[in-house]
Amino acid sequence: MQDIVLTLVFAMALLMFAVFPAVKIVDFIKSKRTLTPKTQNLLTLLFTILLALAGALFLKL
Fold first, then answer.
1. Is 48:15 a contact under the CB 8 Å cutoff?
2. What is the pLDDT along the chain (61 residues), one digit of tens a residue?
3. Is residue 43 within 8 Å of 26, Cβ to Cβ?
4. Are the C-beta atoms of 56 and 7 separated by less than 8 Å?
5. Phi and psi at residue 27, to the nearest 5°
6. For residue 51, what are the domain limits?
7. Structure-derived torsion over alpha carbons of residues 47, 53, 59, 61, reported in degrees to the nearest 10
8. Per the structure, how many domains does the chain have?
9. 12-16: long-range contacts (C-beta < 8 A, 24 or more apart)?
10. Residue 55, Cβ neighbours under 10 Å: how many?
């Protein structure tokens, strides 16, 4: 249980730093496909959370 909480605390700290790469990933996807603004926002949020969790898991090691 402590491992999960520690990983989530690390992820909260990394959320701010994960926004820029997430926006760049969504811009790349947008250049390849047509996306609505709602889809862009959803993908940005999803990639931000995934990148923050991935970074937190890396820090946990």
1. yes
2. 888 898 899 899 999 999 999 999 999 999 999 999 999 999 999 999 999 999 999 988 8
3. yes
4. yes
5. -60, -40
6. 2-60
7. -120
8. 1
9. 12/52, 13/56, 14/51, 14/52, 14/55, 14/56, 14/59, 15/48, 15/49, 15/52
10. 18
Q: Dig out the tokens for 17 from the structure.
A: 């730093």
Q: Say what the pTM is.
A: 0.87
Give the whole-angstrom CA distance, residue 14 versus residue 16: 5
Q: Token pair for residue 50?
A: 């995934």
Write phi, then psi, for 33 (nearest 5 degrees).
Answer: -135, 165
DSSP the chain: -HHHHHHHHHHHHHHHHHHHHHHHHHHHHHHHS---HHHHHHHHHHHHHHHHHHHHHHHH-
